[in-house]
Each structure stands twice: as C-alpha cells, then as structure tokens.
Amino acid sequence: MSSLSLAYRSLRRRKVRTALTVSGIVTGVALILVLFSLTAGASTQTNGLVRSLSPAQITVTNSTRPSFPGGTGTGGFPGGGGSGFGGGGGFGGFFGTSETVSQSLADQIGNITGVYAATPQLSVTGYVGGSNAFVYGIDPSTYSEVTGGLNIVSGAMLSSSTIDQVVLGQTLAQSLNATVGSTVTIGQNSTGGDAFAVVGIYTAANSFEERSAYVPLASAQSLSGDAGKVTDIYVKANNPSYVSTIASEITSSIPGVNAVTAASSTLSASSLSGTLTTFFTVIGLVALLAGGFGVINTMIISTTERTREIGTLRAIGAKKGQVLRLFISEAFLIGLIGGAAGVLVGVVVALLLPSFTGAASATGFGGRGVGGLFGGALTPTLTPEVVLLSLCLGIVVGVLGGLYPAWRASRLDPVEALRHV
Amino acid sequence: MSETNAQAAIVQTVAISKQYKGGRIHVESRRGEGKDRIRLVPALNGIDMTVGKGEIIGIIGPSGSGKTTLLNMIGGLDRPSHGKVLVDNVDLSTFNDDQLADYRLRKIGFIFQFYNLIPTLTALENVELPMNLAGVPKQEQENHAYELLRTVGLESRVGHMPVEMSGGEQQRVAVARALANNPLVILGDEPTGDLDSKSAEALMDLIVSLRKDRKMTFVLVTHDPLVVVECDRVYSIRDGKILRTQTKAENKKIIGDERSMLSKLY
Fold first, then answer.
1. Burial level of A166, CB count in 10 A (0-12/13-18/19+)?
2. ipTM metric
C-alpha cells in the first residue's frame, strides 16, 4: 500500500468534494490547453498568411480601401470595402472587385528610382466551374519577377498575355476534378461564363489560398468589366533597404494610393498575435490560480477533518515525512486527474473550435480577409508539447496547492491530534 | 513491585514530571485561549513506575489526573519535562522526532478508546499499515496480517471496512494492528471505554490470552472494573502523583465490594 494508493482511497471516499476540487483544475488546464494551441496556431499561421497576403515588398492600393492589417490588424484585406461583396454572408453571386487604381500606375511606379519592377493585379470574385472562388488577373511577364511566382506543381505558369488560360489552386482543381488540359468556365454566376484552358496547378501554404484561380490581367478585366483597372500593384525594390523610402515616395507622389510594406504588415500582425497570446495566457493562469486555491481550500478542510487519523498515523509510527508524502500524494492525484481531464476537455474544445470559426474562413466574409485571418488564427495546433505542458501545469498546480496543507498536517502534534474529536 | 520485576523490567519511568503551559491540557481551553498561557500547569509530578514483561498494568484516576499523559510518555508521543523513561534500558530522551516515530512503530502498539482505524482501509489493510510503514515485504505483510486477524477471531472480516464492523470487532482489529510489528508493549487508552460489557469482556479475554500465549505486556488506562480485575497491578493516580498501587488480589476484593455495594443501591 503506497502513499499514492492510500491517497487515492481517501479521495475516493469523498467523491463529490474531490470532483469539485478537480473541476477547478480541469477548467484551468482546459483553458490553458486551448489557448496554447490557439496561440501556437496563430503565430505560425499569421506569419505565413501575412507573407502570402503581401507577396511583394510593397503593395500599392487605392487609399479608400482599408489596407491589411490596418490600424487594428484585422481590417478587411483585400475585399473588406470592396464593391462586389455581399457583406458577411459570403459571395454575392456576381463578379465584384474592390476599390481599384489605374493599371497605368504600374508603369509610373516602375519608373521610380530604386524600383526594380512593379506588377499589377486585379482581384475579383466569381465562379470557377460553378464554384465561387477568387480570380486574380496578373501580368505574367512581371508577376513572377516581383512576387516570386506561384508554386506550380503540374503544368506551367500562364504564358504571356495569352487570353483564356488559367492556373488553378490545387484545392480548387481537386474540387472541380480539373487537371492540366481540362477546360473550366469562369463567369459571373454558377451557370454561365467563358471557357478557360487549365495550363497549370499550384499549391500554397494553406488550402484556402489554393481556392483561387490566376488568369491573364485582361481576361479578369473583361470578366469584371474593369478595363484598365487593377486592385493591387506589387512593387519590388532593387535593394530591400530602399523599401520604406520607396513606399513613402509612392504615397507622396501619387495621390489617392496607399503603399503598405510587407514588414509593417508582419509587424502589426505579429504584435497582434503577441497581444492575444499574453491576454489568453493571463486568463488561463488566473483560472489555474483559482484552481490552485481550490486545492488549498479542500486540502485544509480534509486535513482538519482527518486530524485524528493523522494523529493515529503518527502514533502507530508514521514519520512527519511520511504524513507529508501522503498528503502531497493526494494533491498530486488531484492535479493529475484534473490535468488529464482538463487535457481531454481542452482537446475536444480545440477540435470543435474550427467547426464554429472555420465556416467563416472558408466561405465567409472576405475569404482572404477578416475571415481568413481569424480562421487561420483560430485553428488550434495540438502538439504533444502543448498537451504535455498542460498536463504538467495541472499537476504542478495540484502539488503546489497541496504543499501548505500537507506541511500543516505533518507538523501536527500527535497528542493534540489524537485528542481531536 | 519494582523489586520483584527488576530483572524483567521493560518499561521504567524514573521520577518523571510534566508541566504544560497553562490551560493547554484542559480540553475546554485546548486552543490556547486566555492569558494564562505562561502559567505552567503540572500534569505529572515525579512518577516512578516499573512494568515487567508479560504484565498487565492498569492506570486509574479521575479525569485530568495525568493518566493519558503518562501513557503518552511511555509511548514516545510526549516527552517528560523532568525525569526519564527507559524502555528496554534505552532512555527515550536521547531520541529525535524520527527516532521516536520509529520507536513507536517497532516497540509500541497503541489501542484507543474509539479504535482509530483508518476508515478508508479494510481490516486487513489496517493491520498491514504498521508493517507497511516499517518496510516489511508485501507478501509477508499480508500473511502476517491475516494470521493476526485469525488470532483475534476476525478471519471472516479481513475484507471489511471499519464502518461495516461492530465496535468490539473494530477494537479487535486495532489489537491486531497493535501486534503487527511484534511490539514490546501495547498501550491502551480506555480500550473498553466505548464497548458494551460483552464486547469489553471479549476484549479482556483476548488481552489475557495474548499475555499468556505471547508474553505480551499491556499498560491500560481505564475506568472500567472489567479491565481492573484482570490487571496484575493498578497504579492509582491523582494530581499527577501515584496515590497507591494495588495488587490483583486487592483489586478483586475492592471491586467485589463495589459490586455488592452497587447491587444494594440498584
């Protein structure tokens, strides 16, 4: 009969009280686990997301359009203020674009000193093969130079200026059952549209970025009726250290545009996720602290109730250390049970969470914008480290909560303790 | 008394005294309330007592006379302010706390008025507990505990929890537990105090047979005539001093008188 099995017996004897004490730890551990997994998910995903949202060093947009990530970091990029969106409920079922700038600005910016190249892009929403998706019109002659290009896994990139070609994201291609050589229709609604030959398939860091199609700029402009207009101009500098200088020169010399640098986007996004992490961690720690006080409380009641039992143990020859170990074992068990149950609850919550928030990320408002960012940020990442750390936290809180009551129990004078009624 | 048992004396108290800080020995002021803390209250005042091997010794006296304090001194639960307790010719005052705990574990068996079994453990596990604390191998613990429960007539109760047993049965489990590490002496604080007379008689029969079969030594604090008649010697304590010592024959006479007196009263 070890201290642990003795401890287990006395916990079992007071099932309700044990359950209540344990539930305090369960709450804290579950909360911490979800928060750990969320913030782990958030920091890995926001950085990737920001990089993929801002493929170039500088992104020039119409200044009336909120730029990502804007003041709060969650501004609607790229379609938040767009003319074609139906709001939070998803696509409006028609082609739409955001606020635009003139395509000719790309050449103008390309001539600024220190600019290596500039490439225009028109982002529109529409139907590809009957599924709603993002359609990007790009200039294949400069796109890859500036942004690094798409990661083509099958077929080829668009060949320069040829109309009616499309490169599909892998997820979209799979859902359409399309391969290189297939033909898909792209249009304003799920039934009509023009036929485009699939020339390539690309992959991206996450599947929602693969739910898009790249077509030549002119095709996108004719589909949306935005001749001569683009939504974004991506700019690459000769030298990365010129980036901020060039960005400010663009905004000062060209009225009505915004120039956002990738570094500033990443910075605000990571400071946002840093703030979230701190906030969540504080909540979780407060919950665990409350759980810890629950353990202290219960254990003090328990040792007081069992004063005579402790006196008996000491009288029949238990040393102070053995009494101490007995009660620390109880606290350890409370922590272990609470930690394990907390991990279970936390894992279930973490697994269920994307089904509440994930809908927004897949089809909801903005797609790549607000929903995209939050969809990404709220995708929990369950790693063995996160699970183990949460379990250990539960045990640590239990044992710490038990230290003082156990010490008190071990210090009882056996004569006094035996007299206790 | 001590002359006749000097050779085989296993417990000896030499002029032991004990002072408590004011009030602490009284139940009603146990929490140390009041301002008379510094005042020393004498609990024992120069007790000389000798216990020989295989004896059953009784300690009687009114409440607060120091009976339990004396028992606790012998049991290593409490230390005298003056004088010394020798057990097996070893002075307990040389022991530190852990050594005293070890002394209680291996040399002393305790039985209490309210049995004090561990409520979460079965009868068998309660008897195993002292062996467990002493590091006896598991199988040996179980065999020995079973054998002890058979000795006290409870082999059919090994798997029962304390709440499932009568007071008399619980007290016999407590005796088996006290015997677990084969102690030098078993100390009982009012062992029959919570038992009906039938159970009390059965317990005393058990104690007498353990003395006979195992040469086990008992020191029993009691009020109970049923216990007193079985004692080889009885120390009568009052105000922390030994008032007198009675032999078995004297006790039988006194108790016989008391019984006849009581029978006249009722």
1. buried
2. 0.88
